[in-house]
Give the backbone structure.
Amino acid sequence: MSELLDLYQEVILDHRKRPRNFRSMENADFQADGHNPLCGDRVTVFLKVHNGIIEDVSFQGEGCAISIASASLMTESLKGKSSQEAEGLFGKFHDLVTDESTHGEEGLSLGKLGVLAGVKAFPMRVKCATLAWHTLHAALAHENKMATTE
């Protein structure tokens, strides 16, 4: 089990050091800003959507390792998914990091996102892990307000 936790930690640190899809997007169809006032994390999520399918997704921002790694992993998992599939994935991810009854099997079904399952042991970090997802939700809902974890 320790080796698995070490691997998960390596994946998180790798995404923090070299976040994927970390860029602004010109001509984005949708974008939203998010803020986690407890940790100070800030993120902007950009979406390019065609016929209801997310063709491209990127983010920019600054924050702790969990926040940046979660945003990076989120962008990798969303390309080619419909808006409804993205919202469903958000629900499953939220359950993974908050619901004590979820275990490793649920994390495996989420692919690389499962590396963040250990966050639920640190309630203060749940908001770091979910900030990008709340911001994604705001972008998909065309909300013109700052997404927050509060």
In short: The chain has one domain: 3-148. The mean pLDDT is 91. Residues 20 and 76 are 7 Å apart (CA to CA).
